[in-house]
C-alpha cells in the first residue's frame, strides 16, 4: 500500500471487542503513520493497569485521566489513535475528539463483540459478568452516541488488514 500521511488524527471509537486496537495498528501501518493506544498511554501515565485505576480511583477517576491523556495525545502530530470504549461517551472528551480529529466508529454486532471478548477479560466492566448481557446494555446506551462519529465502518470478521483498508478508504 502506498504511504499517505494523514492530514488529521484518526480516532477509532466503538465498543470493547470492535477491533479498535487491532485494526488501528494496521491502519497506521497502511497510512505510514504512528499508532497510539489511549488505554496503554493511560496505564503508563498512571503506572497502573486499567483494572487497578478502576479499583483505586473508581470509574469516574479513570474517565478524568482518560480525558487528560486523550487531550494530550490530540496535540501530537496527526496519527491513528485507538480509544477505550467509554472515551467517546464522555461529553468533554467527545468534543475534543470532534474538534481535533476525524472520528471513526467501528460498528460491530453483538455476536461479534461477545466472540471477540470471550476470553477471560482483563476489562473491569466485563470481568466476572455475562459478556452478552453487559455488551447488549452498553450497545443500547452507547450506539446513539457513537453514531455522532464522523465516519461509520462496519467491523466484520476476517483479516484486520482488510478492515484497515476499508477504514482508510472511508476517511
Ligand atoms: C471501557 C473500555 C476499555 C477500557 C475500560 C473501559 C469501556 O477499552 O477503556 O475498560 O467503558 O467501554 P477497550 O474498548 O479498548 O476494551
Task: Record keyword descriptors for this entry.
single chain; 171 residues; alpha/beta; Rossmann fold; 5-stranded parallel sheet; 7 helices; 5 strands; 13% strand; binds shikimate-3-phosphate
Quick description:
The protein is an alpha/beta fold. The protein has helices at 20-31, 38-46, 50-73, 91-100, 110-116, 131-146, 160-170, and strands spanning 9-13, 35-37, 80-82, 101-107, 151-154. It has a single domain, classed as P-loop containing nucleotide triphosphate hydrolases (Rossmann fold), CATH 3.40.50.300.
How would you describe this protein?
The protein has 171 residues and is an alpha/beta fold. It has one domain (9-170): P-loop containing nucleotide triphosphate hydrolases (Rossmann fold, 3-Layer(aba) Sandwich). 52% of the residues lie in helices and 13% in strands. It has seven helices and five strands; from the N terminus they run E-H-E-H-H-E-H-E-H-H-E-H. It has helices at residues 20-31, 38-46, 50-73, 91-100, 110-116, 131-146, 160-170, and strands at residues 9-13, 35-37, 80-82, 101-107, 151-154. A five-stranded parallel sheet has the order 2-3-1-4-5, with helices on both faces. Helix 1 (20-31) packs across helix 7 (160-170) and helix 2 crosses helix 3 (50-73). It is globular, with a radius of gyration of 15 Å. The two termini are 16 Å apart. 35% of the residues are buried.
Amino acid at each position: 500500500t502506498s504511504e499517505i500521511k494523514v492530514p488529521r488524527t484518526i480516532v477509532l471509537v466503538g465498543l470493547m471487542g470492535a477491533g479498535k486496537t487491532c485494526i488501528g495498528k494496521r491502519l497506521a501501518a497502511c497510512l505510514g503513520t504512528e499508532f497510539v493506544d489511549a488505554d496503554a498511554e493511560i496505564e503508563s501515565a498512571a503506572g497502573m493497569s486499567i483494572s487497578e485505576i478502576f479499583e483505586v480511583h473508581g470509574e469516574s477517576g479513570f474517565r478524568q485521566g482518560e480525558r487528560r491523556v486523550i487531550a494530550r495525545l490530540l496535540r501530537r502530530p496527526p496519527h491513528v489513535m485507538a480509544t477505550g470504549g467509554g472515551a467517546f461517551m464522555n461529553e468533554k472528551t467527545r468534543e475534543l475528539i470532534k474538534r481535533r480529529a476525524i472520528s471513526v466508529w467501528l460498528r460491530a454486532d453483538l455476536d461479534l463483540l461477545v466472540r471477540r471478548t470471550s476470553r477471560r477479560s482483563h476489562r473491569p466492566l466485563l470481568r466476572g459478568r455475562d459478556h452478552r448481557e453487559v455488551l447488549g446494555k452498553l450497545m443500547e446506551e452507547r450506539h446513539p452516541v457513537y453514531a455522532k462519529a464522523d465516519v461509520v465502518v462496519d467491523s466484520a470478521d476476517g483479516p484486520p488488514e482488510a478492515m484497515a483498508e476499508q477504514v482508510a478508504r472511508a476517511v
